[in-house]
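quick one, 883 residues, struct below
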Amino acid sequence: MSVHPRHPIKLCLAVCFALLLPSFCAAASRIEASRAFLLAPGVELRTVTELSRDGWLRYAVISVDTASAGVSAGPFNAEQWIDEPASVMDTVRRNGLLAAVNGDFFDYSTGMPLSMVVVDGTMVRSPRKDQDFATLCIPAGGEGYIGRFTWSSRLVRQDGSSLVISALNEFSVGSSDAVLYSNMRSSRRYPPNAAVALFSGNEVVAVAQADAFGSVAAPGYSDTVFDLELVATGAKSAFVTGLLKGETVRFEFDLFPPYPMDSAFSGKPVLLETGIKAKGLKSFTSISGNQRAPRTMAGVTWAGKLLLVAVEGRSEDSIGMTLDEAADLMIRLGARDALNLDGGGSTQLAADGGKGPIRLIGSDGADRKVSYSIGVRYEGPSAVGSLPSIVAYPPYGNGFEIPPLEELTSPGKAYGGIIEDLPTIITGTSLYLSEDTPDPQGLSVSGPVSVQSDGSFAVEGTGPVEISFAVGGRKATYRMLAASKPASVSVKAMVLTADGLSFTAVPHDAAGRPVNMPAAGLRAVAEGDLGSAETTTGLFPADAIEGIGNLKGISFYFGGELVSYEEARITGLDRAYGDGMALVSGMDDASAWVAASAPEGALVCMSGFSSGDRDAIEFSYDFGGTGIRAVYIKPKDRLVIPEGSTELRIMVNADLASGHWLRANVRDERNERQFLDFGRLAGQGWNEYRAALPAGGGSFSLEQVYLVEFRDDIRSDGTVILDSLTAVIGGASPDASAFWEASAAGGSQAYVPCAETPLPLDPSLVSQFGLLAVPGDALLITLGATGGSVYKNGIQQMQRLIEACTSQGRYGSLVISIGGLDGTLDRGAEPLARIKDANERAMLKALAARALFMGYKDVTVMEYGAVEALCFRIDGAFYISVP
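---
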């Protein structure tokens, strides 16, 4: 959706004030937060994050009213073949599904499902002869149910003789067996010496026999059009080889019980039957039934709705579930009957968020290809449309969109499911409904915001803001956090790309509350020694900065007011963007490189070099011996050379060293080492040296640059200075990805000795008197973290903290005291580093930052165990550690 200019909107709506904060199911044993999305009439998706003493859990539930008009659910393949697995994401995309999860267990070697599958009333795979498997069936427009089925079939000739067929689309054929296959296999495999026959309708159209290697070489067999293929082995093969081409036969099929079904899929084991949890679930050790793992389940509620559930596992964001716990979850979700599906690395859930499929649940960081997916399709008269966005215009800068909470998005870290990642705005911002918004109904606003006569909204203070209304019969909710105008800016990182100089900057208001760049409405000015360039986004375009010379720093302005100046030196911008040049490394930070030598002692030292506006790397060497002598300079982080580069160039000052070879190693796409030769160094100040990259292009990364000498008669010691490693790009795409990154100052969070600046709490008093030093008018939250975790020592204390940090209308000071952490802290340690769970650390910091928007005048997080009083400030909250 594009951002539209300001425009008046007529809203004749009543205004009421009520802030709806994230809803929590405050059970005694867990904290639960969920979000619900209406995908179509009768189809709802809910994402859930839970925190219990056992850890984090994340899952998603697709609820389907199978009786709803236009809704259908069942197995889907990405392609027409049943033996070509595909990810759930691909299946959703290619079939236009609303959402889907992975299906049944399958044979990895063939990709074929292990048990019964029915699609559009047609049997695709017969039931497996295994009592642990069961099948969930969905009649057309009816209520789903779970059943166990048997299937039998035989082929009958006109003389009455018959052949018993054991299975349809079974992934393998036994030693004396007959298996029937449909024409949905892309790879037709046969046992050695098997008899095979093809049928079109009831007519035999081909008969052949496989050789000892399982290949069928009969003329025309592989090109024959057919509906069914019969494969027989052992004693049953004679019946098949006796069939005559052109003969009319009859297939008999029997499914028992003969229940109605339009679609069906299978799994194991059954978790629930008529609301009663199955016994012996721990015994399914082959699928880790007694261990927590990713799980996929399907069920039918007492109201007849289909449930498709995916649970993440084996990660810091979600611990997963045992089969017992999976059954308990299905009971909590209201299931009457429930079935376990393939899990582990197969567990996936994807949904169409209106702008394309979104992967919501996955277990191994990648989308495993599975035999089929169980999806939901909607073909009704009117689909659920996208909800409008609100367009925010800060006092200065450009407008940006704020989407509704009801818009489906990819999940972030687990704690983000509990603590919503709300957009920030600043006081003075104007909010407009997007131009194509239908007439909203039931407007409700709360927080420091008011409705204007033209229908827009004005932000007039700080704190949480909520705007909600109904549009097209659906509710749209917009939550924001309002800060005051920006008072400082810190640059966290800069990335030089083919598009330009991209930077990450975090503005803060006077209270230290963080605001993103678009919301702050700041104008950034890149100051160079030859000129300057401006932007209101996080990117200085290449054509704007190539003429500014060497970058000296970035200034940030709020209107005409200078807010902050960040020193950031990069040399060679003119070379980087002139004549197809790209900067691989400025080589201006010696700490980002390591040095080595062969033999030991050939390297004397390496350090940074500064002279005027030039920052470079300087190393001294001693090549006084004989044999091969070399000094290697290696980047600590991988330096990617832009794809399509044909040459590397480097600036070198060899006044104090000349005559030795300068070379480099790069790694290609196969991780094979390639050698580059810059040639022998000459004196006379700074010179540019060039080395051709291997022909054929491709992707390369820099491994090392090195000075080397092979000849025994050339001996010396001296110093070499290296600067600005660039690449010449031949036909490089303007959309090339980032290839250089430099972390700027201020990126780390580390304790330092407490300065003389007044703090909300006096560390010396806390050291002497403990919590008695906390002012009486402050809200004190004490947390026990024995064992390195707060929530594992009592989920109720975490609930109390969440309520204190996310409820509006607060005042005074908030002090969060964390006790029981093991070990000691010294200068340079990260606040809360002794909390073992990364999600818990992030959530505690997010809560402290969120509390500043709720009305507290200051927030202090206090931990014990420091060797001296230490302090740090993160997003406005003070962190203090005392002995």
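Confidence is low (pLDDT under 50) at residues 1-27, 731-746.
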